[in-house]
């Protein structure tokens, strides 16, 4: 009888243990789903549609105009000759500039009016060409007057040459081109909106014309971005990050997800610059193509696309902000006590960084070794101890695993005074792109995205160096046509100085 009762008790104990295991598994899954649901409620996105409305079609048309202008410019450069203009039934008439706009006369005369034969030349006339300029909010017209001089004895005629322009024989000045570029890529105004603004100011400029200008400027500015990239790859520590951008799929009438990659030196570096690289996907090969043979230290998040580069000699530096963010989400969503405790340790590490931010690299490393290393060691031991207590699959377990699996990369900054604690610097440089996505909606083509990336690289780099992007681009576009190739680096944002 006793043995029978003991057997029943043993069976029931087994059933209870099984049920406890099932309950534990279900509860873990419930906690996981609850955590994810809370995250989705906080990160809720609006509806996205791939259907093209009227505004999107207008944006597509302007990017096609830009592509055509850029392609024509490239062909002209490769052939070292002007692109032949195709014959049309009726040639378009040159835009007549409104007579009521104020004019500024700029005279161009020969350096010498003395004829080689020894006689003094006499002025017999002049050629006048008009270019449309733009001072923000006000249109003006530059009248370039080139006097003609002739020798009455030998009838030799001389005249000052036509000043070199970014767009030969076009009406826009460098100021107007800079305004269009800054408005499109810094102020996020699509070309059709700019056309409406210009019309209100008294000048009708078609979207296609503005698209042509943007395409040519993007092509002309690319050598500056290439030179900036060469200087950036000479640095030992870089940041990298990427953000999605919609790109129109050719022939499909829909968009696909492309990516804009961002690269920048650290905030400790004297080189203040950022380069955006537009790519059709998030494949890590795009990062390796950009970095080429560079073998420095790269600060990134945990995206797997960077892993192949780390296998070829690049040293991985982790982002402490990403590790901290996992626990912040737990604390914000569930008031987790574990998360609250670990956030205090993360806060102590960042407290050290605030104190050493303005110090030289050697001093920064020394203070980190003295003060931050003990904090990091305590944090590591705490993470290991807590991981043994929480069930697998829970939100807390995932947050702990993220930090523990990447601990070596997360703490490499402690041994290098030039290395930052996180990747926030490059994330701040991507924020303007996130704002622009809400206005220009998508890139019309791969070429259009690459052109936009080049112009945005120069605009954002100018901002980082404290320059007005409009003043910078106006001066660069003025000097670029006559700038020698081996002196192109003089126009980079970190070397540029405004004209006196």
UniProtKB/TrEMBL annotation:
The Transposase IS66 C-terminal domain covers which part of the protein?
457-494
Q: Domain of life of the organism in this record?
A: Bacteria
Q: Which InterPro entries match?
A: IS66_C (IPR039552), Transposase-related (IPR052344), Transposase_IS66_central (IPR004291), Transposase_TnpC_homeodom (IPR024463), Znf_dom_IS66 (IPR024474)
Q: Where is the Transposase IS66 central domain?
A: 169-450
Which Pfam families does the record associate with it? DDE_Tnp_IS66 (PF03050), DDE_Tnp_IS66_C (PF13817), LZ_Tnp_IS66 (PF13007), zf-IS66 (PF13005)
Which residues span the membrane? none
User: Which intervals hold domain Transposase TnpC homeodomain?
Assistant: 32-106
Q: Where in this chain does the record put each Transposase IS66 zinc-finger binding domain?
A: 113-155
Q: What is this protein called?
A: IS66 family transposase
